[in-house]
Amino acid sequence: MTQELHIVGGGMAGSEAAWQAANAGIRVVLHEMRPKVETFAHQTGNFAEMVCSNSFRSDDDAQNAVGQLHWEMGAADGLIMQTAREHRLPAGGALAVDREAFAQAVTEKLRAHENISFVSEEITELPSSGHWIFATGPLTSQSLGDALREASGQDRLAFFDAIAPIVYADTIDMDIAWRQSRYDKGETEDERTAYINCPMTKDQYEAFIDALLAAEKTEFHAGETAGYFDGCLPIEVMAERGRETLRHGPMKPVGLTNEHDPQVKAYAVVQLRRDNALGTLYNIVGFQTKMKYGAQADVFRMIPGLQDAKFARLGGIHRNTFLNSPTLLDAQMRLKSHPHLRFAGQITGVEGYVESAAMGLLAGRMAAAELQGRELPPPGPDTAMGALITHITGGAEAKTFQPMNVNFGLFPPIDAKGGRRGRKDRYKAYTDRAKETFNQWLADQS
């Protein structure tokens, strides 16, 4: 074989694309600029480094669209999902991982693959020939972004993504906080006690909201506008939308009972989720923020149980880049104006680690098939992967296109003959149908 597949970006999507293509017998060259060229968000040169969270979200493949996507990635021998399960941490019904061990394991597996070679360099221009997958993620460099804009004839789109803070576990006051997963979810005691919960009274909540609104925020650069993705809003932006917004979002008190005072229902609850296998680090769930560092420490120490908290990392904010994919990409995830270039991951307009890796999986398999002289159709739109790729390559409205998590709203409706289905029955019908279709898609490739 003389042709190579070049993949730019060693994040979730690029790592998964490389794995899938290499397993198909394709020679892969993986280009990753780190650690030679650093970003403000990454801390290592490892592949698939997680920067915003350590969670792949729900692992329920019967009732949840994200869980169904987990299932499909596992069925397709997905590197990211396989490695995540090897390094999972207790997180109730979610799949959370020890992020450092996870990234190290992904890196070791890729470097051990005989069909993958590596180049540590920054790609600043779009190549004019060859077979390429660009999976440069939300932190696509300015020079490459400019090249994309010139090649596509479209202004690149952007939104702002915020990173949640991480707290040292031994600085959390467990005389105030307690361990419990919402609704006691989980099959083991570790799962049922995976979260640390900090309760607030109404007065404490109101004071916290006042402090959030008054805190000094990060200023945007000239010409930038804050087009936030609703699934990753900074907490102060949520507070600006209404004083009760946080109490019905990341600070909702439902499904939790304070073991220190079971008869008193908390007005609001801040949850922290384990961030490493040792249990020494916890991230504050849903607390992405653009407050300045000094303000963050002051405001977060108003949370009962965190009054003496020390932070391993404070929150931050950065600009994310993504394509107007319904206009620019074909059904094979190729740039219509330059079909030798494929795109994968968050730059295509999917949101989340799982979704990004899934698009890498598809791009890797599609590129491998093309190099072998055939075309691989995407999975049917009634699968989780198929629903996502259908959405980004034509199902979404181009004028209002924004990053999207996988959800059942992207799936073709289920025929509900015989009466309206209950939600649980309807979701189970979606996932049963998706599994059958996805298994057939895999069988057709064998």
TrEMBL record:
Coiled-coil zones: none
Residues that hold FAD according to the record: 9-14
Reactions the enzyme catalyzes: uridine(54) in tRNA + (6R)-5,10-methylene-5,6,7,8-tetrahydrofolate + NADPH + H(+) = 5-methyluridine(54) in tRNA + (6S)-5,6,7,8-tetrahydrofolate + NADP(+); uridine(54) in tRNA + (6R)-5,10-methylene-5,6,7,8-tetrahydrofolate + NADH + H(+) = 5-methyluridine(54) in tRNA + (6S)-5,6,7,8-tetrahydrofolate + NAD(+)
Localization terms from the record: Cytoplasm
Cofactor: FAD
This protein's record includes keyword Flavoprotein: yes
GO cellular component, one term: cytosol
Top-level division of the source organism's lineage: Bacteria
InterPro entries documented for this protein: FAD/NAD-bd_sf (IPR036188), MnmG-rel (IPR002218), MnmG-rel_CS (IPR020595), MnmG_N (IPR040131), TrmFO (IPR004417)
Enzyme Commission code: 2.1.1.74
A GO MF label: tRNA (uracil(54)-C5)-methyltransferase activity, 5,10-methylenetetrahydrofolate-dependent
Function of the molecule: NAD-binding protein involved in the addition of a carboxymethylaminomethyl (cmnm) group at the wobble position (U34) of certain tRNAs, forming tRNA-cmnm(5)s(2)U34. Catalyzes the folate-dependent formation of 5-methyl-uridine at position 54 (M-5-U54) in all tRNAs.
Similarity remark: Belongs to the MnmG family. TrmFO subfamily.
Protein name (database record): Methylenetetrahydrofolate--tRNA-(uracil-5-)-methyltransferase TrmFO
Protein species of origin: Thioclava dalianensis
Taxonomic classification: Bacteria, Pseudomonadati, Pseudomonadota, Alphaproteobacteria, Rhodobacterales
